Amino acid sequence: MVHFQLSARAYAKLICHSAKYPDREINGALIGTISKKDNRVQIQDTIPLFHIELGVAPMIEVALNQVELYASSKGLTIVGYYQANETIDDTSINETAACIGKRISTNCDTSCILMVSY
């Protein structure tokens, strides 16, 4: 079993992103390091992506490519994806989250999808 650790910085950024747009679907990338030896993923930072309902694949691809370049320049990798849905109590993984999660998992077999709830 893989253990995920979320840094205070990463947590604060994703909560601030969702608090800034409480009536919208928001999402972003989780970046960090992977320790195969310890089966541990350290989520060190988040990169907020969008605060609109997504349905445009090219925008997602460009954003993830930019995050990948940034993360690699810091010695990190994309280890997951976060999303908060439009309604407060909805933590379901929609098609957008599933597609982005699948795309990230092709490069990181220990990736995760983190659904934000209030």
Report what the structure shows:
The structure is a single chain. This protein is α/β, with parallel strands linked by helices and 118 residues long. The chain has one domain (3-115): Cytidine Deaminase, domain 2 (3-Layer(aba) Sandwich). It has three helices and five strands, in the order βαββαβαβ. A five-stranded mixed β-sheet has the order 1-3-2-4-5. The relative contact order is 0.22. The model has no long low-confidence stretch (mean pLDDT 93).
Q: Topology, please?
A:
Elements: E1 3-6, H1 8-20, E2 26-35, E3 40-50, H2 57-73, E4 77-84, H3 95-105, E5 112-115
Parallel strand pairs: 1-3, 4-5
Antiparallel strand pairs: 2-3, 2-4
Quickly name the level 1 CATH class: Alpha Beta
- Cα(first) to Cα(last) distance is 27 Å
Q: CATH-wise, what's the superfamily? A: Cytidine Deaminase, domain 2
Largest sheet: 5 strands, mixed
Low-confidence stretches: none
Quickly give the CATH architecture. 3-Layer(aba) Sandwich
Total discrete domains: 1
CATH fold annotation: Cytidine Deaminase, domain 2
Radius of gyration: 13 Å
Structural class: alpha/beta
Global geometry: globular
Which range does the strand content fall in?
A: 25-35%
Average pLDDT level: 93
H/E element order: EHEEHEHE
How many distinct beta strands? 5
The main sheet orders its strands as: 1-3-2-4-5
User: How many separate helices?
Assistant: 3
Protein name: MPN domain-containing protein
Family: Belongs to the EMC8/EMC9 family.
InterPro entries: EMC8/9, MPN
Organism: Amphimedon queenslandica
